Amino acid sequence: MKPSSIRNNSYFPYLLLLVQPIFMATNIIVARGGVEYVPPISLAFWRWLTVFLILAPFFLNEVFKKKDFSLIGCQYKHDKIFMPAGFFKKNEDKNFKKNYDILKNKDFIKVDWIAGCSILVNLKKFKHKKLFDDNFFLYFEEYDLCKQLKRFKKKVFLTKKLQIHHYGFKSSSSLKLDFFEDAENLRNWHWMWSSFYYYKKHHGYITALIRIFPKLISSSIKFTVYLLIFKRFKSDIYKHRVLGIINSVLLKKSWYRPKI
Fold this sequence. Notes:
- The chain is of the alpha+beta class.
- The chain has three domains: 1-55, no CATH class; 66-168, no CATH class; 177-249.
- The chain has nine helices and six strands, in the order H-H-H-E-E-H-H-E-E-E-H-E-H-H-H.
- It starts with 11 loop residues before the first helix and ends in an 11-residue tail after the last helix.
- Helix 1 (12-23) crosses helix 3, helix 7 runs antiparallel to helix 8 (205-228) and helix 8 (205-228) packs antiparallel against helix 9 (232-249).
- The strands form two sheets. The chain has a four-stranded mixed β-sheet with strand order 3-6-1-5.
């Protein structure tokens, strides 16, 4: 359907945003479909308000029983690769992963961090109502938030009462090749930029350098190898990983955007 054919009906894009949460497409697809007709703030607001209203009867009663919380995260229904929550200390996180199949049957599990794809927020616990660091464009913003909450002894939970289907790194998998490549470059650039920024913010510049240096060397080597064997797509990915690290180390902002 061409954009020009539906401009005269101002309610059509809102109808699409109402129907979409029931079938749940990817973030990128929804954004591309609605952003031309619905202002960005309205797009996010109406989309997630609709999701919330559809699901609220199934979980609100149970959640309200748990009043002393700052954040509550959702369990993944089928994802066996990505963890929906964890701990900042390696030993605690390792034990959590090892025993997760047992722990996930509890109504609420107190954790250090939760994944940012779906979060229930208790705004009463946030004095200034500003949750995330604006310097992050992609990735690590939820870890940063949870790290700060832990510092102030605020409570973060994972619950079996809320479960979602999580498709990690799949937002661009069904897109055209040109946009898929741009999306992959964007993802890798910001993953590296945000990694260093997060470590620098919470552990200091020198510690962040030590942690990111092996990734810089590894990505540089892979970029060179793929370039020499004419694997352009792979070489571009690692080039953008290197550039993301360099920009973050040089204290530049997360400025990179895809050329679309």
